[in-house]
Amino acid sequence: MKNSRHARKGFVAALIAAIACLVLVRTESSAQSVVAATQTLKGGSSVARLVARWPKRTSSEVVERMRALGNILLAGRGAVDDVGLQAASQQFGPDSELWQFENRTGDGRSTLRFSYHVKSDDLRLEDAEILGEVGLTEIDETTARGIMRGAVGRLVAAGLVRVEDFDPASASLAWRKVTGGGGDESAVDKILEYRFTLLRQINGIPFANAGIRVGVHRSGIVSSLRVGGAEISSVRQAGVEIASDTRGGVFSRKVSRADTARRFGLEHPNTKLWTQALMYVMRDDVEEDVIEPKEHYLFSSVMESTDGTKTFAPAERVSYSTTEVGAPVIVHSRLVSAPVRAPDQR
Amino acid sequence: MKPKHLLLTMAAIGATLSLAEVSAAAHSYYITESVEYQNHGCGNANSNLPYYLNAIAYSLGAAGWTGLYYAKDGDWPQVYVDGCIQSDGFDLISDTHDLVIEAHHGSIGSFVFGYPSPTGRCSVSLKNDMRLGSMFGATASTAVFASCCTLNRNHIADTANWQWTRQNIGFHDVTEFDNGMFADWFNATQGSSNKSAWFGHFEDRPGWFTGDNSPIVISYGTSQSDAQNTHNTAKLKGNVLVSPRGGGPTCGGGQPYFYWWAEWIDHGNGGC
């Protein structure tokens, strides 16, 4: 029996390797690709390189996605105003960089705030009335996670996301909180909304430029939703995601996390590290990118002022290759998406 | 104060006042930012960041607002300091505008400039130095502190609440921007509240889903419901609650009783 299971595992591994060999055109060598593809791609000694791009949608597609997202959020508490959606479509259209409008449900009980960032296919929605309600009983995190999983299931059922792209168990949690009071009296923080972020997963490694965010109000109602981001050209074989584009491939990991950390420390002394993670990340200024997992750092320069206070600069992002020793660091640039004005002169 | 600085300061005050007289119905802004911290007298940091606020200055102008936008050595610490409480203060330059925005290196309750004032000042403390919306000037209704940690939630009572603005807007911990985010935020306040637009535009950079920033908005009023009403309805571009809050402390007077309401998204980076 045990031998039989081993035999099946061996067969599956061999099958994955064979499929990978057929799909991967640009690999280091066919022998290496066989080795790489038979190893786990999930943060192991090999990594998948794939092509990511920002999707382009027609106005009618955007409206359809808004309607679906709205109805998932409302969950029977009303219906999205179709006339309002169509009016928004006319007002904004595909040439707008940002759609942003409110949609009142037919029964008038909910105001849905829609926004859609066209370039990044980033669709967001929140229920203004629910998020203004601070007095209801607070559910616990476990309950909120269960509600989040239900919402993700409905997003999958509606075709807004694919089930294989996300892992609810890896959702990170943030909170929308409120507090207040009179004068300098102490005030108690309240959780207004649990905010779960699910980044698109590629063989267990997160992709920073696509995801889901589910907000669960303290009352247990889904209060905000966000879906979208870049798309990946890939195929899945036996649970392993590999490139469907000839620019992709599987490569050996050649730079350890420790080596990257040493390099970061040398290149960015005297910094505060906010987060560090192995992630897929697109460069900011491209429509399409060949991506592979990189060691990613979000950090601020630290300056000690003359009075001894440590201050932090706005954060910067850099990524280091895991497949090429000494490869140039990628600095994630700051987009300039609006006209600029020169400073005044004193 | 050096004669050149004094003359320039006087000229700036004159320009500001005449601006206010000419366009009494319009709104105005005062924006400054520092990105140059390379041994100009206020320390040295190895960051190489772009300017972030020039796009919102452009958008404000396009929407009919008037105002001033300074950077580099034109970004002076003393103009954020209220002359009523500090002898080197000159906030008649900043606190004579409806909207004040700063972007600097930050820490809890303060921010630091790239170039020192004539008296050697490099930093400004919200508690010890600033009184936006009250005392001298007494005009600013909305303040944006676009510096790391400056509006850290754990210190609201001892930092932000010393201002007499309608809203203080900023970050609980880390800040990460691109240039277009501020302009997008302002433009969104035509239809959305300042608060909703701030959370919508500053939790992530465009195209990112990682949720690194922890944006925060603190609103004020004469009662708890008044503070919450300001929180939910104030719109800069939509011209809702842009006027001065009024009724604040005068020079030498104590701070009247007030109510506040804060909302923030906490991604837990902390570490301020």
Question: Helices and strands in order, then pairings?
Answer:
The complex is a heterodimer of chains A (346) and B (272).
Chain A: H1 2-23, H2 30-38, E1 46-53, H3 59-74, H4 82-91, E2 98-104, E3 111-117, E4 122-127, H5 128-131, H6 141-157, E5 172-182, E6 190-202, E7 205-217, E8 222-229, E9 231-237, E10 240-243, E11 249-252, H7 257-267, E12 271-279, E13 288-291, E14 294-304, E15 310-312, E16 316-321, E17 330-331
Antiparallel strand pairs in A: 1-9, 1-11, 1-13, 2-3, 3-4, 4-8, 5-6, 6-7, 7-8, 9-10, 12-14, 14-15, 14-16, 16-17
Helix pairs in contact in A: 1-2, 3-4
Chain B: H1 3-22, E1 28-33, H2 54-62, E2 66-71, E3 99-103, E4 105-107, E5 110-112, E6 123-125, E7 142-145, E8 167-171, H3 179-188, H4 194-202, E9 215-221, H5 224-233, E10 259-266
Parallel strand pairs in B: 1-2, 1-3, 3-7, 7-8
Antiparallel strand pairs in B: 4-5, 5-6, 8-9, 9-10
Task: Describe the structure in your own words.
The complex is a heterodimer of chains A (346) and B (272). Chain A is of the alpha+beta class and 346 residues long. Chain A starts with a helix and ends in a 15-residue tail after the last strand. In chain A, the strands form three sheets. In chain A, strands 2-3-4-8-7-6-5 form a seven-stranded antiparallel beta sheet. In chain A, strands 1, 9, 10, 11 and 13 form a five-stranded antiparallel beta sheet that branches. In chain A, strands 12, 14, 15, 16 and 17 form a five-stranded antiparallel beta sheet that branches. Residues 1-7 and 9-36 of chain A have low confidence and may be disordered. Chain A has helices at 2-23, 30-38, 59-74, 82-91, 128-131, 141-157, 257-267; strands spanning 46-53, 98-104, 111-117, 122-127, 172-182, 190-202, 205-217, 222-229, 231-237, 240-243, 249-252, 271-279, 288-291, 294-304, 310-312, 316-321, 330-331. With 272 residues, chain B is of the alpha/beta class. Chain B has a single domain (3-264), classed as Rossmann fold (3-Layer(aba) Sandwich). In chain B, 21% of the residues lie in helices and 18% in strands. In chain B, the strands form two sheets. In chain B, strands 2-1-3-7-8-9-10 form a seven-stranded mixed beta sheet, sandwiched between helices. Chain B has a three-stranded antiparallel beta sheet with strand order 4-5-6, with no helix packed on it. In chain B, helix 2 (54-62) runs parallel beside helix 3 (179-188) and helix 3 runs antiparallel to helix 4. Chain B starts with a helix and ends in a 6-residue tail after the last strand. Mean pLDDT of chain B is 90; it is low at 1-24. The chains are: A alpha+beta (346), B alpha/beta (272). The interface between A and B is large, with 84 and 91 residues. Strand 5 (172-182) of chain A pairs antiparallel with strand 10 of chain B.
